[in-house]
């Protein structure tokens, strides 16, 4: 599901509107930084056997922009805002929001999407939307796509960080580059750490040199006996 780009309110008005919408029927939340030109949204990822877990976090005003684009939240500039539920509750109850997140955030293994579900949207600002994916086989190399918000504005970015050993351990995703191949193999943590990778390469070179020296010594000894 892709949302149609909508012109956003000026920064101060957008922040104020976000606080009002989010806190409807509840205490006011602190103002969020201006987006999409502020800090990127974040996503943390972990792999365990065939299961991949992602937690995607966005700023308050970005959740509001997404909710309005999907029709889950009202726009105070064009109409009344219901005070029955908080903005977070409205987002949690929206099937369109859930479908959008699963459509924009997904895992591909060997060219096929892994089965995904939106596990939780509780405590949305602090913990984000938590998604779980079940792949056909244990996760080694998979393609990770996080395109949420970038269809609203191409300036949106997402910093993807692995919580289990992976190569790369972190990467920045953009509107023109929403997918990254990640390696969760047992040696991925070494590959993702430059110092360890160099040390491992040096150790391998030393070992290879030692083996070669032993073989040369044996050949010389054999020639001497003959």
UniProtKB/TrEMBL annotation:
InterPro entries: TAT_signal. It comes from the Bacteria. Residues 1-25 form the signal peptide. The chain crosses the membrane at residues 186-216. Keywords: Membrane, Signal, Transmembrane, Transmembrane helix. This is PE-PGRS family protein. It comes from Streptomyces xiamenensis.
């Amino acid at each position: 599901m892709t949302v149609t780009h909508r012109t956003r309110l000026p920064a101060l008005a957008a922040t104020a509107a976000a606080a009002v919408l989010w806190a409807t029927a509840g205490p006011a939340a602190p103002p969020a930084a201006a987006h999409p030109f502020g800090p990127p949204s974040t996503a943390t990822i972990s792999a365990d056997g065939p299961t991949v877990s992602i937690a995607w976090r966005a700023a308050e005003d970005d959740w509001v922009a997404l909710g309005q684009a999907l029709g889950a939240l009202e726009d105070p500039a064009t109409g009344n805002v219901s005070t029955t539920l908080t903005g977070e509750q409205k987002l949690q109850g929206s099937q369109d929001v859930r479908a959008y997140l699963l459509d924009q955030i997904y895992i591909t293994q060997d060219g096929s999407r892994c089965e995904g579900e939106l596990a939780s949207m509780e405590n949305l600002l602090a913990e984000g939307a938590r998604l779980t994916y079940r792949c056909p086989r244990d996760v080694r190399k998979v393609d990770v796509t996080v395109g949420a918000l970038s269809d609203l504005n191409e300036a949106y970015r997402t910093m993807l960080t692995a919580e289990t050993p992976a190569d790369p351990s972190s990467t920045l995703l953009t509107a023109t580059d929403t997918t990254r191949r990640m390696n969760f193999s047992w040696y991925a943590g070494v590959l993702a750490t430059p110092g360890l990778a160099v040390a491992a390469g040096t150790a391998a070179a030393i070992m290879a040199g030692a083996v070669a020296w032993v073989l040369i010594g044996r050949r010389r000894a054999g020639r001497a006996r003959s």
